[in-house]
Amino acid sequence: MKEGTDHTGIPVHAAALLLALLFTAVCFPLRANPAVSSSKVSEVLIVSGVSVEPDSLYAGERAIFVVRVQRPESTLVSIELPDSSALDPFYLVAQKQSSMRLSAGLAEERFEFELAVFGSGIQPLPGFVLVFRDTEGHPLERREHRSLASVFVKRLAPSGMLELRPLKPPVNPDFPFPILTAMLLAVFGTAGAVLLVLFLIKRKIRLFAETLDPAEDARRKLRKLRNHLSAGLPPAECYADLSAVMREYLERHYHIRALEAVTQEIERDLRKLGVSSFDAIMNLLRQADLVKFADSRPTAEEARSSTRQAEEIVSSGRDGSE
Amino acid sequence: MQHAAGLEELGRDIREASRFLERAEEQISSRIIGQKEVVHRVFIALLAGGHILLEGVPGLAKTLIVRTFAAAMNLQFQRIQFTPDMLPADLVGTMVYSPKDMEFHPRQGPLFANVILADEINRSPAKVQSALLEAMQEKQVTIGSSTFPLPEPFMVLATQNPIEHEGTYLLPEAQIDRFMMKVIVGYPSYDEELEIMQLAAASGTMPEVKPVVDAGDIAGARRLVDRIYVDPRVQRYIVDLVVATRNPAGHGLASLASMIEYGASPRASIFLLLAAKAHAFLQHRAYITPEDVKAIAYETLRHRIIPGYEAEADNIKTDDFIREILQHIQVP
User: What ipTM does this complex have?
Assistant: First the structure.
């Protein structure tokens, strides 16, 4: 007799495996009807359980369909469900597969399907095909199984139907032009306001600086006056403006009352202060008085010269020690 | 700079014509110590054809100033002491019956002179004051059915005492307005008073004043004063000042608004301009500057502004208002 075989010629380890399987089948009976038909290679393979939970549900609800297959560890197994049209009234939502080692050389494969159930009344679960492969992935055998399990699909009450009515599919919103326009306006408006505020602040600072420095203010006004003169301002009017600029400068620089004072009063105050450019200032003011009050008619060149003279007075007053 | 041709010529004429004023001032100062401001204002009134209200306490040589001024200017002088029992006829004259031809003939009163000193004008009743003020305005007097023009120049210098109001008749505002200027005659300075005392004690009699001017000089000077150039800027400045007395708040003088009850009349603008011209003449100038206006602003405006209750309660004088206005209105 060949070593490792019994008197029937079956290898000892195969007999032991068969005995183990028989023991398992006895100890772990199928909860659902076992749609099992063993033959050839897969004699050692057992569909150890097919179950579905819950077995009673409303249309549209989901049932978990589980298939457990015991296999030798040297064999791979996969499961194929019918295509979606044949699966009706079930709809495959998700599936997952897991393995578990039962004992030496024996493992259990667990296939779990999440099925959405439709229709009504008793709905038998779909059949499936088990595909066995060797360790290298070559198919060994395909075995079809017809599931005997079923679920009971309850009719929907009118209220239930209302509750389960499908949601209105979202409509693609139009491009939000009004909102975009408003946002752009707000952005540009804010930017404009900020720029305006900055401009006003800058202007305020400049004016404040000029307020602090009467010489700078007077120089700016005299420059402007010279430009106006070049642009055709009558020389007589130039003298009137020149007098006003100088009086304002004298009032702010020497802190005397000049805008409301006549030339003689200014002369008296400046003499008291001992201003170094006294003669030049008085000469300028007297010339302006002649133009303003005595109908004297200066030439443009004289007006320009007086303006330059005024600028020199302002500059000397600023740099001087007064 | 090209000067206005007419003004240059006028300036020369003014310098020439105004020489007599220096001679007259010299004569007056030989008898009057100090009070140069008052004398100056009297010259202005003479050149501008105005009248003066002199206000000052007794003993400040008001009468002497006027008398001396008339003598130096070779003008006929009359002093009229106003009393409560005075009648208008005592001023203007009356119709006097002549037994020779058995007819009434007009006899001219003391008003027929060049310079009238109406002493203590507020001591006469209103009808006498009115007769004088009408003569001042019209420069003519009607006696009976005949109208007589007053001599040229004709100038009234009325005096009133500011401290003694018992038994006086206050001049109504409408009549005060007819005086070109109200001049306050103040006390002399310490040195002036010393000099006055020495002069009076040394001689016992006043130095004689020689006339240095004739009527033609004054008439010629007046014609030149009329020709003095007034720039529109100065005209606007004058109007600004006068309007500011009526509407101080509108000229940025809100604090005065409740203090002034009535401002100056348009006659103030006219007199301010005329007096400024005369002032410019005295400065030998052919044009007015704001300085001329400022120089006579107090005298021309002070009697035309009527202070309100608040001002009187706070003892604020019209000169304070004028000072505030002059300091606030911008000079052109």
Answer: 0.77
